[in-house]
Amino acid sequence: MSSLFTYTLRIADSSLILGQRMSEWCSKGPTLEEDIAMSNISLDMFGQANGFYQYAAQLDGLKSADKLAFRRNEREFFNHQLVEQENGNFGNTIVRNFLHNTFNFLFYTQLTNSKDETLSALAHKSLKEVKYHLRHSSNWLVRLGDGTKESNAKTQIALNELWMYTDEVFEMDALDIELFKKGIAVDNSSLKSDWDAMINNTLAKAKLTRPEDEYMATGGKKGLHTESLGFILSEMQYLQRAYPNAKW
What we know:
- The protein is an all-alpha fold.
- 64% of the residues lie in helices and 0% in strands.
- The chain is built from ten helices and no strands.
């Protein structure tokens, strides 16, 4: 696999898995408006994933976008571990999304400057949606954190539990460094200070306490995941694996 192919897959995988998680809220939202909003966010994520999968398929020349999404196993996925975490209650979902949306906003903003014209175009196309996703999760985080005593407590618990998955999004491995030097990839580590500032600002408004950096999970880029991903893939890939090469 080429470095560019793998890099593109990583972006696509995180979008796909978070999109699948958000699709699980369909018909289960706390209000009709939020049910529609979360379903639309899911569709946005699927659309972003499809764009990057199509480019990856073009780079690969052997597998289609559908095969990349539905015919790989758990160890062949390179998404951030944060996006595969279970929805839990509404507060859990909002915290998970807020943490990742903040990174996504900074990441896609920088990716628009990529010397790879396709990656740049996909980033430009995705950025408007990413801005909305961040606004949605940020507003809800403040409403929950600065809401009732119970909503604040539950949101704080979610923040404490999910914090361990935030550090790996800033990691730079040899592949990232190689493509960054060529002007193609984003220097993820350079996003950390802006991410910290945005996170701290919103947490203060939400009256939530930022957790300490203790044990921080890693491994998504190497295909190492929590047990949650296996359950996601078994449901998401069922039809493709039960009826290989089926046509609608």
